[in-house]
Specification:
The complex is a heterodimer. By secondary structure, chain A is α+β, with helices and mostly antiparallel strands. Chain A contains two helices and eight strands; from the N terminus they run ββββββββαα. Chain A starts with a strand and ends with a helix. Chain B contains six helices and six strands; from the N terminus they run ααβαβαβαβββα. The chains are: A alpha+beta, B alpha/beta.
């Protein structure tokens, strides 16, 4: 079994996840990065995307939006403005998210914002196909 | 002197009122508990956010890169975001917030500043409309919202940020009621923009001061955090406000129920006295009538 570290996912409404995990893949502002136990101290903002948590109990995927990740050798804290488990993302909810993302794309002022929005739309469409 | 029938009517109407205030008090108590739970659940996010900003703020020396921290360098145009309740019957809750906002607005106006106001909640907007209505630039209605979600706060924050980018104001202040306890709610003014860095306590956890790497740069991360923090502060304000509202309503309804009880006692006493007086009077009439025969 891989070494574990303490992971906390916090949204403004509540503490969503807190416990020991093996690996977390975080959608960083400048690209995805994986955090394992003993990661060097690191802070990154995150873009809307898929957060993948591997814990001894299994794997979990969550859609996160805007926030920050703070990694230390023995813990990882993610502050996300919103986080939804991919399994809960069905039907109406998915359609709403997609609509919001498309609105964002339409409003995007620079390349960076456009790329972020496009990435999110892609991701949502893939979830939709799988559902 | 009121007749017996009048007294009976009054007693039954006060009893009905007491039932209503009692019910409202219990509803407020239940809702207060919910509101407190929500506020407690929201705390970890705000705490960690504060800590990160404090950590980062102590390290970043060039604050000019984060416009929300530096401000515009002027303080001519003040934006006041006043958050009150959608309903009344909550003691001094709405009045206290409005009073604080009114004082500040008048002080700023007297100093020759421009004041713009965003009113969240119906009651405050109505209370200040006559004096300060011309300064309103927006009203936000949360009446249809059953449970305040972060999205509600974020919407207000985005509005604020758009106005700020457009150069519509220099300083933004949030007015809400801080929840201390069921019987104590303190109207509070909190400066949102330019943001103030939370004081000290850099990295209590973790012991040895770790040097973090930042992606993108420290300045950008700090800028992002401060932006996120505005939504967080507004969210906190909204939640505190909800808890304060139900706290104030609960104690107001509690004293209303008690007053109704006292009134019923007094009225019942008067009613019984009048009834006895009438019986005595009738007896005297009968006796004196019998004696006359």
């Amino acid at each position: 079994m891989a070494a574990t570290f303490n992971f906390e996912l916090v949204t403004p409404e509540r503490l969503l996840f807190s416990g020991q995990v093996e690996q977390v893949v975080v959608p960083g502002a400048e690209g995805d990065f994986a955090v394992l136990a003993g990661h060097s101290p690191f802070i990154s903002t995150i873009r809307p995307g898929l957060l993948e948590v591997t814990s001894p109990e299994g794997r979990q995927q969550l859609l996160v939006k805007k926030g920050v990740a703070e990694a230390d050798p023995d813990r990882l804290t993610i502050l996300a403005q919103s986080a939804v488990s991919v399994e809960d993302l069905r039907g109406d909810r998915l359609a709403n998210e997609l609509k919001a993302a498309e609105a964002q794309l339409a409003e995007a002022k620079d390349d960076h914002a456009r790329m972020t929005a496009e990435g999110l739309i892609d991701l949502l469409k893939r979830i939709q196909l799988k559902a | 002197m009121a007749s017996l029938k009048d007294l009976r009517n009054r007693i039954s109407s006060v009893k009905a009122t007491r039932k209503i205030t009692k019910a409202m008090q219990m509803v407020a108590a239940a809702k207060l508990r919910r509101a407190q739970e929500v506020a407690t659940a929201a705390r970890p996010y705000a705490e960690r956010m504060d800590q990160m900003i404090a950590n980062l703020g102590s390290r970043v020396t060039d604050k000019g890169s984060a416009p929300l921290l530096a401000g515009t360098g002027r303080d001519n145009v003040h934006l006041m975001v006043v958050m009150t309740g959608e309903r009344g019957l909550a003691g001094g809750f709405n009045g206290n917030i409005s009073k604080l906002a009114r004082q500040d607005a008048q002080r700023l106006l007297a100093a020759g500043k421009t004041v713009k106001m965003i009113m969240v909640g119906r009651k405050g907007a109505e209370a200040l409309k006559r004096e300060l209505g011309e300064h309103y630039i927006d009203r936000i209605d949360l009446r249809a919202v059953r449970q305040i979600a972060f999205a509600n706060a974020d919407e207000i924050a985005q509005k604020l940020l758009r106005l700020y980018e457009a150069g519509e104001f220099d300083v933004a202040t949030l007015y809400f009621s801080e929840f201390k306890s069921v019987i104590k709610q303190v109207p509070t003014a909190l400066q949102l923009i330019p943001a103030k860095l939370p004081e000290g306590k850099a990295e209590a956890a973790g012991g040895a001061e770790a040097i973090h790497q930042y992606e993108p740069s420290e300045e950008e991360v700090l800028g992002d955090l401060v932006t996120l923090n505005i939504s967080t502060q507004i969210f906190r304000g909204l939640l505190e406000n909800v808890a304060s509202f139900y706290g104030a309503q609960m104690s107001a309804m509690d004293s209303a129920t008690r007053n109704a009880g006292e009134m019923i006692n007094k009225l019942t006493l008067t009613y019984n006295r009048t009834r006895q007086a009438m019986i005595t009077k009738e007896l005297i009439e009968i006796i004196s009538g019998a004696e006359a025969v």
